[in-house]
Amino acid sequence: MTLGLPRPLQGYFELLRHRPGEQKYVCITCGRPVTGLYRRISSTVLKIIDCEKCNNPADKYIEFEVLIILIDLMLLSKPAYRHILYNSDCKNLWKIGCILILLEAYCFWTDAFRGITNISYRSHVNDPFLSEKGFYLSAIHFLTGFMLLYGFLYLFNRLLGRPLGLAERHSTAGDGKSYPRLLLHGVILASIGKFLFIPIIIWRESSTETSMAIHIVLVLLYFVISLVQIHSVISDCSRSRSCLVVLLAFIVKAYFLTRVSTVLQELV
């Protein structure tokens, strides 16, 4: 299999730079470390390397358009997750995380989540400043929730005796990514499904409380499933184990976030 040198992977998901012989890539099919993803045939042609263990192409996504990769991400494809997390440079992924936090904060501030929660940061005083203050408090609410979720995922991994993940297996080679960094990227990547909150903003005025609540629950359920899949990829463990860790993290996060929201509501 050959491909031309100019590739569409740019911007958010560029291939990591490497030197020959460094084991910092992984096979997207079986997840085992590989020394490289392609071999240079000529100055304009590359050939994808096959994995020595599963005999599949080490990373077929290096010849795919970014749109195809994003579609596979939305379909919860493990190979697509491995490509982004292990074989790509996610240096701009934090920007997506910031946008998602602001999106959730705006939905919360406009009472779009009123159907599933009684928390509100809106002031009853008709003051533009106090109204805007509620948006910033909502942003703090969701930023705190993100950090709590990330922290408890890492903590429960340690407490439950997390098996040696792929990060530790090749983090000493080249620019291998550490487990905490991969987990952070994974939580952000799993949150991409929250862009589905946008229809709530568009059609909120013509939707009932029940339909909005169902929409929100479905998006959150998709987020949980995505996080379970990504945790399984990063920790190199079974889905059942990942499901246990994720659910525990969500439950404890919800408990602490409720207490945080009580403090924030007093500031309105």
TrEMBL record:
- For this protein, the parts annotated as crossing the membrane are 136-161, 182-204, 210-230, 242-258
What processes in GO biological process is this protein linked to?
intracellular sterol transport; regulation of plasma membrane sterol distribution; sphingolipid metabolic process; sterol metabolic process
Report the GO terms under cellular component. Answer: cortical endoplasmic reticulum; endoplasmic reticulum membrane; Golgi apparatus
Cell location: Endoplasmic reticulum membrane
- What role does this protein play? Mediator of sterol homeostasis involved in sterol uptake, trafficking and distribution into membranes.
Q: Which Pfam families match?
A: Arv1 (PF04161)
Instruction: Name the chain's protein.
Output: Protein ARV
Name the family the entry cites: Belongs to the ARV1 family.
User: Highest taxon of the source?
Assistant: Eukaryota
Q: What is the lineage of its organism?
A: Eukaryota, Metazoa, Ecdysozoa, Arthropoda, Hexapoda
Q: How does it sit in the membrane?
A: Multi-pass membrane protein
InterPro entries the UniProt entry points to: Arv1
Write the record's keywords in alphabetical order, separated by commas.
Answer: Endoplasmic reticulum, Lipid metabolism, Lipid transport, Membrane, Transmembrane, Transmembrane helix, Transport
| Record carries keyword rRNA-binding | no
